[in-house]
Amino acid sequence: MNDWLIFSSNAFITAFALYCASFIAYAIAVAGKRWSNREPAAHTARWGRIAFITALLGWAAHLTFFFTRWIGGGHIPTSNMYEFMTFLAMAIMFAFIVVYLIYRNTLLGAFTLPLVIIIIAYASVFPSQVQPLIPALNYVWLKIHVTTAALGEAFFAVGFAAALIQLIRVVDLTTTDKAGVRARRWTEFCLVIIIIIIGFLAAVFIFRGAGYHAEFRQESVLIDQQGQAQTSVKEVKYGLPPIVKPYNSDVISMQPFMGLQQPLFEAPSWMNGVNAGRKLNTVIWSVISGLVLYGLMRLIARKPLVAVIHPHLTDIDPDDLEEISYRAIAIGFPIFTLGALIFAMIWAEIAWSRFWGWDPKEVWALVTFLFYSVYLHLRLSRGWQGTRSAWLAVIGFLVVMFTLIGVNLVIAGLHSYAGV
Amino acid sequence: MIENSKCECGHQNPVGTVLCESCGKPLFEDSQNDADTPLEMRYDGVARRSQKEDPAIIDRIWSFFSSVKIAIILIFLTLVGASLGTIFVQESTLINLKTTEEFADYYEETYGTAGLIYHALGLSRTYESWWFVGLLVMIGTSLVICSLDRVLPLYRALSKQQIRKHLQFITRQQVVYTGRIEQEPEAWVAAAAQQLKRKRYRVWQEGSALLAEKNRFSRWGPYINHIGLIVFLLAVLARGIPGWHMDQYVSLYEGEREPIPGTNYYVQSDKFNLQLYKDEELADNQKGTNVVKLYETKAKLFECIDVCDDPTKEPVLRQVQQHAIHVNSPLQYKGLKLYQNSYRQHIRLISVHPSLMDTATGKSFGSFDLMMDNPKLTYDVGPYKIRLSDYYPDFGFDDQKRPMTKSREPNNPAFIFRVSGPGITGEEVYSYFPLPNASSKDFQESLNAAFKEAGANTGRFTFKVANMFQQGKMEGVKYSEFSTFLNVRVDRAMPYIWVGAAISMIGLIMGFYWQHRRIWLRIDDGMLSLGAHTNKNSYGLRADVASTLGKTGITVTPKELDNRRNVR
Ligand code: HEM
Question: Which pTM value belongs to this model?
Answer without folding.
Answer: 0.86
